[in-house]
């Protein structure tokens, strides 16, 4: 296990993420810092750093580097993006950072910036026909994605900060300034020949994206803390846009969930996003928690580790490794659960889109034992619910946690009222159908050594018979699995029988 730090000089903040990397190439962020830092206030003016701001950069990076070193970081990457070229004497600033701090500040090209951004997004969710959008302080990055690959991209030279101060929309919004700035953004978007209304979704990332999530959660009383894969409709974006438009700086600071560091650039950033949404007309806007910083980390991992390509497996095995869980047992419970799911399809009538829920729920069912064995099903529920599991939607994430929590032979039930924003009684029925299978699978590996090698399923209108075979004795496994027969009958309306079949190698 090693630690890696990424220091990122952005146009509105200087950021640090410190990550812990497992031997399998899985990383988790263990510390994060951000320091406000705004430059390039207007589009037409050259960006000049005074000595005070330069010293501010150096002292901040020095602090970040010290934190990384104190935490035992093996590698420290210092990056910035193409906006840095707009600074007067940018090369001398790079030299000063090298001379004073012994750090090589890499100024990413536009192509590198797009590459690392797409890598970060691809590692957090499945991408088909989508438009990736990031609005920084001084630029708007648009990336056309087809089947996870870059089709086109454009980096527009305006973002939240320079648009706000160029058109005087950083505080109270006057109609004349609003009209001029909106027309400016619309004209620039119209100039992009490949930008169309054929996208299934907008994938939105960055500071504004996370702020929008926080604001929307306050408004809707959203039950989960997860940011990645959060979904908001075009109407929801327009409502937030109108809310901010009607408020000056003082009133914006009072809005629940707003980032106080970006109150002056909040409206201008939303203006860009709102114009994009109107032009593209996506079905949904999905929020990505990852940024270019995570892209840098993944690039490092790919060069030094054998990283799993499947992003759901990467998350699941990463969590299991981090918690020192029994991975062979987790794999066996999923193996049996998946076989039962396939064999009983005519009874539960669920298609394969629920397999990700079953995989996450069955493989992580015992992760709560890292807290305490007693009531570990409840611990598993909140560990899963508060873990970063890439690819899953929020509903799938919640249902996976509920499936895991229902693996024990007790009367645990998900508190529906608390999560009614995301799931309904039909979803509870699906959770119970999957949970019943995980109960049986858990019982059939009670000795934790994978003794069940084969199984077959037979059923009629009154009963389900599972036959299991193994070169080992299965009395304990069969007894434990049958403890779930009453719950199975309640859900599948059939008596459950489990029998040992003669072992044939």
UniProtKB/TrEMBL annotation:
Species of the source: Clostridium disporicum
UniProt record similarity statement: Belongs to the GppA/Ppx family.
Enzyme nomenclature, EC number: 3.6.1.40
PANTHER family linked: EXOPOLYPHOSPHATASE, RETROGRADE REGULATION PROTEIN 2
Span of domain Ppx/GppA phosphatase C-terminal: 315-473
SUPFAM superfamilies: Actin-like ATPase domain, HD-domain/PDEase-like
Protein name: Ppx/GppA phosphatase family protein
GO molecular function: guanosine-5'-triphosphate,3'-diphosphate diphosphatase activity
Pfam families: Ppx-GppA, Ppx-GppA_III
Domain Ppx/GppA phosphatase N-terminal positions: 23-302
Swiss-Prot/TrEMBL keywords: Hydrolase
């Amino acid at each position: 296990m090693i630690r890696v730090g990424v220091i990122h000089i952005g146009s509105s903040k200087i950021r640090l993420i410190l990550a812990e990397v497992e031997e399998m190439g899985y990383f988790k962020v263990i510390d994060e810092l951000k320091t406000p830092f705004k430059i390039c206030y207007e589009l037409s003016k050259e960006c000049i750093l005074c000595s005070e701001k330069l010293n501010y950069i150096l002292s901040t990076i020095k602090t970040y580097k010290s934190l990384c070193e104190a935490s035992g970081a093996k590698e420290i990457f210092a990056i910035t993006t193409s906006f840095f070229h707009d600074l007067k004497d940018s090369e001398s600033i790079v030299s000063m950072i090298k001379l004073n701090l012994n750090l090589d500040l890499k100024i990413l090209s536009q192509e590198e910036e797009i590459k690392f951004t797409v890598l970060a997004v691809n590692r957090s969710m499945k991408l088909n026909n989508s438009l990736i959008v990031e609005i920084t302080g001084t630029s708007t990055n648009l990336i056309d994605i087809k089947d996870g690959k870059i089709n086109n991209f454009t980096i527009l030279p305006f973002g939240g900060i320079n648009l706000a101060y160029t058109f005087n929309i950083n505080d109270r919004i006057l109609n004349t300034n609003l009209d001029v700035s909106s027309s400016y953004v619309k004209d620039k978007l119209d100039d992009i020949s490949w930008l169309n209304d054929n996208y299934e979704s907008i994938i939105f990332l960055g500071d504004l994206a996370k702020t929008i999530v926080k604001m929307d959660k306050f408004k809707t009383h959203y039950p989960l803390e997860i940011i990645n894969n959060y979904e908001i409709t075009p109407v929801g974006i327009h409502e937030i846009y109108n809310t901010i438009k009607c408020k000056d700086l003082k009133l914006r600071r009072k809005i629940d969930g707003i980032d106080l560091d970006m109150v002056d650039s909040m409206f201008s950033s939303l203006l860009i996003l709102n114009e994009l949404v109107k032009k593209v007309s996506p079905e949904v806007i999905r929020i990505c928690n990852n940024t270019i910083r995570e892209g840098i980390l993944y690039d490092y991992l790919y060069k030094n580790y054998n990283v799993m390509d499947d992003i759901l497996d990467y998350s699941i095995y990463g969590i299991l490794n981090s918690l020192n869980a029994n991975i062979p047992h987790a794999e066996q419970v999923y193996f049996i659960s998946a076989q039962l799911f396939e064999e009983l399809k005519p009874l539960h009538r669920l298609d394969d889109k629920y397999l990700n829920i079953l995989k996450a729920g069955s493989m992580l069912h015992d992760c709560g034992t890292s807290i305490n064995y007693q009531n570990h099903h409840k611990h598993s529920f909140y560990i899963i619910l508060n873990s970063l599991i890439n690819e899953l939607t929020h509903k799938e994430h919640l249902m996976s946690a509920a499936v895991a929590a229902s693996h024990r032979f007790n009367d645990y039930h998900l508190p529906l009222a608390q999560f009614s924003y995301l799931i309904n009684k039909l979803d509870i029925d699906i959770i119970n159908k999957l949970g019943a299978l995980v109960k049986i699978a858990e019982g059939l590996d009670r000795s934790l050594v994978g003794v069940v090698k084969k199984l077959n399923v037979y059923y009629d209108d009154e009963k389900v018979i599972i036959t299991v075979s193994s070169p080992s004795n299965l009395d304990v496994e069969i007894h434990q699995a049958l403890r779930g027969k009453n719950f199975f009958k309640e859900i599948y309306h059939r008596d459950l029988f489990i029998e040992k079949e003669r072992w044939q190698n």
